[in-house]
Specification:
alpha/beta, six-stranded parallel β-sheet, two-stranded parallel sheet, 10 helices
Amino acid sequence: MRILLTGAKGMLGRHLARELEGHELLPVDIDDFDLADAVAVERAVAAFEPGTVIHCAAMTAVDRAEAEPDAAFRVNAVGGINIAASCQRHGARLIAMSTDYVFSGDLGRPYHEWDSPRPRTVYGQSKLAGEDGIRAHCPNHLILRLAWLYGAGGPSFVHAMLEMGGQDGPPLKVVEDQRGNPTSALAVAERLVRLLDIPLVGTMHFSCSGETTWYGFAKEIFAQWGLAKRELTPCTTGEFPRPAPRPANSCLERRRLRLAGQPDMPDWRDALEKFRKAYPDG
């Protein structure tokens, strides 16, 4: 299969590049062309003639997006539209990554794919605009929403905890009033490759199963890596104000995956253990 992979140098892109080694792969990143340049995107897709485009490239700096909304929309919205339009012109299937930030985080249960998005941040708004552009310009698409992603080399919450947990110091405060699905990029890449031959279209939640808080996630990281130099203590979101509001509820239900008769994503603890064994240094 001929696959064009955008964002190939990013955390998920690096894992996907390894999983796709058996395919004819063209990995590209920001140094290769500007996603917001429709001509450059069209030239790349036309030259390679992929059967599938896996679109991982994104501006994911949530707080930076609040200060630089044009930059966020340029990459996440315009970039998605350009990729989708080129895929449609050349008959390529588009598999694109999105985020739990398209939701407000106010719901009292996990969000499923038919819940209405209501982003509260510029990042979430720009990703939703990208989703809408993909739906409008490329019917043969699969949008995969992820949450609390970590992967080899980082940067991620796992890497921050490994660094700080390995240092002497006072108890480390970690937020306990935000819930989500810690999701391994390794698990996402492994499962995504299995979907390449399945003609699913639409929007699908693709986070790991099970849920916890950032504090619970940190405790599991400390336990699995045997970190004992620092203690952990829970705190509230209000103690760490950020430019972009964080969702209180980032939990995603994988209803589409279940209704498609596909196995669920692995439990987040099991996925973390598999990641630790594969990448003990993170």
